[in-house]
Amino acid sequence: MKLFYAGASPFARKVLIVAHEVGLAGKITVIPFAANPLEKEKAINQHNPAGKIPTLVTEKGEGIYDSRVICEYLDALADGRMFPQGEARWKALVLQSLCDEAMDAAILARYETFLRPEPVRWQDWIDGQVNKIEKSLDVLENSEIHHLSSTFDIGCAAAGCLLGYLDFRFAHLNWRSSRPKLAAWFEGISKRPSMSATEPKS
Fold first, then answer.
1. Model's pTM, two decimal places?
2. What is the domain range of residue 187?
3. pLDDT at 37 > cutoff 90
4. 25, 86, 158, 187 - which has most CB atoms within 10 Å?
5. For position 119, which CATH number holds?
């Protein structure tokens, strides 16, 4: 299998975390790409019309995307446990969605400040994205910390990716200052082999 991957992408990191957790990391060839909304890679477009990272190419040459679908595919391929069954499944999937949406907001804020020329940047829009992130972090601190501390499923992996991306691109937000339980959880979970092996890179 091949994975089109960007070292800074929290969504691509989530895929590799799952691959490590279910024992498939060694069977995936990682192909680094620096795709962004302004520059699409033709090699990715052959497998994913949107040209987005991450995209997985199976051994049969079939493209699988987005990160949520890739993660579930890898988990099913290895008969893994990142996607629990029964009521626990919905808890894990909703937690993944919460973190994915916050990661989307973070990436949009990053694009606005990094890719858009300074004279046309929209600060109110950036502030709106940051507000989404802050509210999501508050939910993790106040409502989800018990779940995070009791297991490691796809929702927990997504939470780790969100916090890692914020440290990487938005350190100025100082998200730990008012969220001690979440900070303690992240410090511990960062030592997990799948997390330490996939830390974001420029």
1. 0.95
2. 87-196
3. no
4. 158
5. 1.20.1050.10
